[in-house]
Amino acid sequence: MSATIMFDLDGTLVDSLADLAAATNRMLQDNAVAPLPQEQIQQFVGNGLPKLVERVILHCDLPMGRHTDLTQQTLAHYNAGASDKTVVYPGVIQALEQLRDMGCVLGVCTNKPEAPARHVLEAMNLAHHFDAVLGGDSLNTRKPDPAHLEASFAAVTPAGPHLFVGDSEVDAETAHRAQVPFLLFTEGYRKSPVAEIPHTASYGDASELPTLVTQVLQSLEEDA
Q1: Are the C-beta atoms of 103 and 2 separated by less than 8 Å?
Q2: Domain locations in the chain as residue ranges
Q3: Within a 10 A sphere around the Cβ of 84, how many other Cβ atoms?
């Protein structure tokens, strides 16, 4: 029983928070600003790197007119160490292998810029599982605009129903607006309780994902 499945990257496939925080704090250090705790930076993650930097600017009372410059500084630091501390969540590699064995077509739809997204996937030995990778700068829009997710599905040769897997409120909104079933990874970077995030199904360990996908597909068949 196959499907075309798009995955978010940060907080869903990999835990990249330490590298995002390191890049952000190096940018702040360059501008004589005290570093922020990683837990604080986690609250700013979502909607892409430019939005993360915007939230840091507001929090640190920096000039918003420097947003483009500070975003480029942060991206340069991130590109220099995008996989230094990033780790793959437990069970992800085995789950991707099982989904591929089921005949599923897999892709990545992330708000991370495409180049570092591809770098992380290569460095984590995940890239070969995915037929397409669309980043936050691949189009003129990004999640939660459903056009980002729709373009990701359009970039692959489809197999069965469309599903989206993510970890955040942004991912849930994207799936809802695209009218695609959403599978929520509960151990990522969400800011709200699980019950408050619309989802078709949820999981806390990636090893559960192949079985969960099968259950969702069977449910879709029964409803058809």
Answers
A1: yes
A2: 4-15+86-223, 17-80
A3: 12
CA distance 106 to 125: 15
Q: How does pLDDT run across 160-185, given as a tens digit for each residue? A: 999 999 999 999 999 999 999 999 99
Q: Lowest mean pLDDT of 20-34, 38-52, 150-164, name the range.
A: 38-52
The CATH number that domain 17-80 falls under is 1.10.150.240
Cis, bond preceding 144 (omega within 30 deg of 0): yes
- Which residues are tagged catalytic? 8
Task: Name the CATH superfamily, with its identifier, for domain 4-15+86-223.
Answer: HAD superfamily/HAD-like (3.40.50.1000)
Rounded CA-CA distance 174/177 in Å is 5
Alpha helices in the chain (DSSP H): 17-30, 38-42, 49-60, 67-80, 92-101, 114-123, 146-154, 169-178, 209-223
Statement: the pTM of the whole predicted model exceeds 0.90: yes
